[in-house]
Write a structure and sequence with these properties.
The complex is a heterodimer of chains A (783) and B (288). Chain A is mainly β. In chain A, 5% of the residues lie in helices and 58% in strands. Chain A has five helices and 51 strands. Classes of the chains: A mainly beta (783), B mainly beta (288).
Chain lengths: 783, 288
């Protein structure tokens, strides 16, 4: 009944919308004149009116207008505005190329919008970053990193200083969907999170939805990070690269057929293993660092004709820790992601844009060792532990530009998940052994429809609904669990659907535009999540194991209410926003005491289920451009939980509870060739379990804990400084040097605090602070 | 192990370019103020004795002195049929023992009653009950040194013959002796296991390996204590919290090992055990 009511509301709204249906359509693409890249989010406005649209993620726009003469304005920040006089007597296909506003801007300019887009947009709780901004922020170990840049925005907190995992608005790190060209990335970290898997040179746009998540996204309850890769230069062969102390990277792009298609290849690798290997041969005191990572990005696109385009993109990354002692004694650990996206854009009509997308993604890790033993007869032993999560998806999405006041999105998608939670096999001489935790297979389906609708001149609505269906399928082993004890084991045959969940996820937001400088927004969203990480770590590890919901483990869901006030000053040069949110989360998972999450086929029995709530206010003052740019971000927040059989009477702090989060970010162009940047961050320490007292039993000194997460880490703060020196450019080659100091005043922020018994019944607290003052330099170039 | 190695790699990565100070530092940590609690440590076995019970207080985590003893309490142990009075030892305050020797009986329930001179954590009366469950009865033991070629080490291979009650779910803890001396100085060094998970339920032989350094001619002694499932779980907890925290999520969250003293309000455990003993002279090396 409830579902019918929701659909009726949608139909009524669409009916209202179709009353404005018009005769002719102006449509086409907006591109960068220099490289042919589609510009995402460029505004197309009918001069002197509020009618207009923005380009979608493929640079496509469509405006339906009555017959007549129009002055159309194409606008994209960092590019010269372009005006066109259009005589609309028939449908017009017009692709526009915008020129960068200064010749110097040749970095990746990714996402921007009209100068007061923050006022008129219906979006709340969304963070967007430009590639050039990411590059200007002082970097850690010479690598510009989108995830580290996002940490400087309100409502976004790193789960640990070293981690690439984020807590968004008090949520857990497995409640964030990370998409690279729409394919899921299940572990975004290289080297315990010192680097993220995203090579900034290959990234075109980054959008982080942390509040009102549009209906076309789903699968996680806290946020969606939508990262799009660059498409490649359709005009000419170009390259961009960097040589740093630890990593180097190179991106090459070239037209396949000029103005019709391009290919981009990007690669990155650390080489401290090679350097230390060479140095160890010269000086035996230096030992080889047995670790490296690499990743590759590939993207190709081709415009078959006006209506058809195809895209192919992929990512492949690997971390390798090679602790082998000799050729006869191998010990290696590998982990990494790969993703693949094959997409077909089809402009069905001037108003209807369709995408058919095939997706694949994989995260896996392997721990492998082999050796020989025996003094007389050589024997071998081999051990392999591997785990993985594979996804295969098919998506069909439509953008329907009904009229200038209504833009409808709808679509369907299905994903097949293959969870290998853990498998061990090997042999000792002739004796084979193996231990497999039963795999999980599942299907996740979704359908959605949404509309962005302008009501009059001052109200913009964005409403939609998403329906999701999750199915556990065989072959599988499931457990009947009563009072946390497995009372029965049930086996299901291949392909059998033995359990399913479904749910409606309404999304709604509205913007009341007070004037072109002020707006108020409110929103509500419900999100459902059908998979989670089975690890007790709050910050993530390379050995994270993902699991689906089961007949016993119910889906998590969240209701989020949010509101915001947006105001711009000084002709939109200063943007100010205040957003508040209240999020209710159900079926949150904690582990029972002394649980063993790894290689435990019945780990579900160790879960304890509870509810969570997170609320807060986010303040952002931003100066997006000019010689001096930057922002001040402050979040006042609280995140709490109640969990049955852990602490069910009183709310206790969640591990992601940070009361204060302040970031000051500034970038200043001293001259055209010299720029400096600095940021300072302050974060309240996160809760954890610290001993409150000690007790003796059986000649042991033991900690006693009072309350869950009752203590806090010390408050975190640090300052980073950056300097960019551009060398004198010539026509074909430009280069620059980037110098950074991370944690400039050398604050010892603990990455870990632990307590230990030492001699003579004494106990001591220790802190482990890895990221102290760190210097880095890199040489960057493009041609 | 793998995670510790990766952490080491991360440390090397960073230290090369950092201010090169030791990342590990002793710090001052102020603990939250919590009410003092009582700790109980004691047991009853099927062996004849006075079965001492120790009472202590919890203390500040960083006090770094032996725990304060609880003196002046009135203790007794009761079964449905008898009551055994305890008295505090004059030479060792906080340690209470039976007025005369006694031994526990299998299939009996024992209840420890403690009446304190003054309230601790809002209570002056503490209780704990435990069952004495019949366990493995040792007939004979053999102990042989065995060469393990995979690890190039010598281990002690023990075959313990006897009878394991197949009709009940048993849990065991072992005490190991070398030449009459107990090898484990702390409780977390004692092995503990269940008969179901180790597949020994109803068996007539129990095989155990020990890494401790026994030599030819040593006397290997073993005590097998049949303990309750609750005490076995308590020992699991003790083992985990005795080690420094694992930051990588390989184990459960930090927690208290919940005992049976006023349903966990007091710390520690009062347990009963059926004890069986055996010993053997260690024989020569088997293997490659």
């Amino acid at each position: 009944m409830k579902g019918k009511i929701k659909l009726s509301i949608l139909l009524i709204l669409f009916y209202t919308a179709t009353a404005f249906s018009q005769k002719f359509t102006l449509h086409g693409y907006v591109k960068d004149k220099n490289n042919g890249e589609a510009l995402i989010g460029a505004t197309v406005i009918v001069s002197g009116t509020t009618l207009g649209t923005v380009t979608n993620v493929y640079g496509f726009y469509s405006l339906s207008l009555e017959k007549g003469e129009y002055s159309i304005e194409y606008n994209y920040l960092g590019f010269n505005k372009k005006g066109m006089e259009i005589s609309l007597n028939e449908d017009v296909n017009l692709t526009i190329e915008l020129e960068p506003s200064t010749e110097k801007i040749k970095e990746v300019v990714v996402r921007s919008e009209a100068k007061n887009q923050n006022i008129i947009s219906t979006q709340m709780g969304v963070d967007k970053l430009q590639g050039k901004t990411i590059e200007k922020i002082p970097v850690l170990l010479g690598e510009a990193d989108v995830i580290k840049a996002l940490k400087l925005l309100p409502g976004v907190v790193s789960t640990s200083e070293m981690s690439s995992n984020l807590s968004i608005r008090g949520g857990a790190y497995d409640q964030n969907m990370i998409l690279l060209d729409e394919a899921s990335v299940y572990n975004a970290s290289h080297l315990l999170g010192l680097f993220s898997v995203f090579n900034n040179d290959a990234i075109k746009s980054v959008e982080l939805y942390k509040g009102m998540i549009p209906a076309n996204y789903g699968g996680r309850i806290s946020s969606v990070m939508d990262i799009r890769m660059r498409e490649g230069n359709t005009k000419k062969f170009t390259g961009v690269g960097s040589v740093g102390l630890l990593t180097s990277r190179l991106t090459l792009e070239a037209p396949i057929v000029k103005d019709k298609g391009a290919i981009l290849v990007s690669g990155r690798r650390t080489y401290i293993d090679l350097l230390t290997q060479g140095m160890s041969k010269i000086n035996s005191d230096i030992s080889k660092v047995p670790y490296y990572f690499y990743d590759y990005n590939l993207k190709a696109n081709y415009t078959i004709n006006e209506k058809h385009r195809i895209y192919l993109s992929g990512y492949f990354g690997r971390d390798v820790a090679d602790m082998s002692l000799s050729e006869d004694n191998l010990q290696k650990t590998y982990w990494g992601n790969y993703t693949g996206t094959l997409r077909w854009n089809y402009m069905i009509s001037n108003k209807l844009f369709a995408n058919l997308t095939l997706l694949a993604s994989n995260y896996d890790y392997k721990i492998e060792s082999s050796s020989t033993f025996g003094s007389t007869e050589k024997k071998t032993q081999h051990f392999l532990w591997d785990a993985s999560l594979k996804d295969y998806s098919l998506k069909l999405d439509f953008n329907y530009y009904l009229n200038p006041r209504n833009s409808v999105k709808y679509g369907l998608n299905s994903t097949y998940h293959d969870f290998n939670v853990g498998k061990v096999e090997g042999n000792i001489d002739t004796i084979d052994f193996n231990f497999n935790i039963p795999k999980y297979y599942s299907l996740e389906h979704a359908g959605y429809i949404s509309n962005q609708q302008k009501l009059g001149e001052n109200i913009v609505l964005n409403y939609g609904i998403r329906f999701t269906l999750f199915q556990n399928i065989g072959s599988a082993t499931a457990y009947d669990i009563v009072n946390y004890e497995v009372v029965d084991t049930l086996n299901y045959s291949k392909g059998e659907i033995y359990n399913q969940y479904m749910g409606w996820e309404p999304r709604f937001s509205t913007t009341f535009i007070i004037n072109d400088r002020n707006s108020v927004k409110v929103g509500y969203s419900r999100t459902i999540q059908y998979m989670h990480i089975a690890s007790n770590s709050n910050s993530g590890t390379p050995l994270d194991v993902w699991m689906p919901v089961t007949p016993y483990v119910k889906p998590q869901d969240a209701h989020q209410f949010s509101s915001g006030y947006f105001v711009n000053f000084f002709n939109n040069k200063i943007q100010v926003s205040v957003e508040s949110y209240y999020k209710i989360m159900n079926n949150q998972i904690e582990f029972r005491e002394f649980s063993q999450p790894y290689f435990n086929p019945q780990i579900e029995a160790d879960f304890r289920f509870g509810e969570g709530r997170a609320y807060g206010a986010e303040f952002l003052i931003k100066k997006p451009d000019g010689k001096f740019s930057g922002w001040i971000s402050y979040t006042l927040a609280k995140s709490e939980r109640k969990t049955k059989d852990i602490q069910e009477k009183d709310w206790y702090p969640s591990p992601y509870d940070h009361r204060h989060n302040l970031s000051l970010v500034g970038m200043y162009d001293i001259t055209k060739r010299i720029s400096v940047s600095a940021n300072w961050v302050y974060l309240s320490g996160h809760p954890f379990d610290a001993p409150s007292a000690r007790w003796e039993y059986g000649n042991l000194i033991l900690p006693y804990y009072e309350g869950k997460n009752a203590s806090n880490y010390p408050d975190y703060h640090r300052m980073d400084i950056g300097l960019e020196l551009k060398n004198k450019p010539n026509k074909k080659f430009e280069s620059s040097w980037t110098f950074s100091i991370y944690n400039a005043y050398n604050r010892r922020n603990p990455n870990m605090i632990y307590f230990s018994s030492i001699e003579n019944n004494a106990t001591q607290a220790y802190s482990f602070s890895l990221l102290q003052r760190i210097y880095s330099v890199s040489f960057n170039f493009n041609f | 192990m793998i995670m510790r190695h990766l952490l080491y790699v991360a440390v090397v990565f960073v230290l090369i370019f950092s201010s090169c100070e030791d990342p590990v530092q002793e710090i001052y940590w102020e603990t939250q103020s919590v009410p003092q609690k009582i700790i109980v440590e004691g047991n009853i076995t099927t062996q004849l004795g006075k079965h001492p019970i120790k009472l202590k207080y919890t203390d500040d985590y960083f006090r770094n002195n032996p725990s304060q003893k609880v003196s002046g309490a009135i203790l007794s142990i009761s079964t449905p049929t008898r009551e055994i009075d305890y008295i505090e030892r004059i030479d060792e305050p906080g340690v209470y023992e039976a007025l005369s020797d006694f031994s526990g009986e299998v299939n009996s329930t024992y209840t420890l009653n403690i009446q304190l001179e003054k309230e601790v954590d809002g209570e002056s009366n503490y209780k704990a009950s435990t069952n004495l469950v019949e366990g493995f009865r040792i007939d004979s033991v053999t102990a042989d040194l065995f060469y393990n070629p995979q690890q190039d080490t010598i281990v002690l291979f023990c075959a313990i013959y006897g009878e394991e009650p197949g009709n009940i779910k048993n849990f065991y803890m072992t005490n190991i002796y070398r030449n009459g001396k107990l090898l484990s100085d702390t409780i977390n060094k004692n092995a503990h296991f269940g008969d179901q998970e180790t597949g020994i339920n109803g068996n007539t032989v129990l095989v155990l390996f020990f890494q401790d350094e026994f030599q030819l001619g040593d006397t290997f002694g073993i005590e097998i204590l049949s303990i309750s499932e609750e005490y076995n779980y308590f020992l699991t907890g003790i083992n985990q919290i005795a080690e420094p925290g694992d930051p990588f999520g390989f184990s459960g969250p930090p927690a208290n090992a919940k005992g049976n003293i006023n349903e966990g309000k007091g710390l520690g455990f009062f347990f009963a055990a059926d004890v069986s003993r055996g010993e053997s002279v260690v024989r020569g090396i088997i293997g490659d």
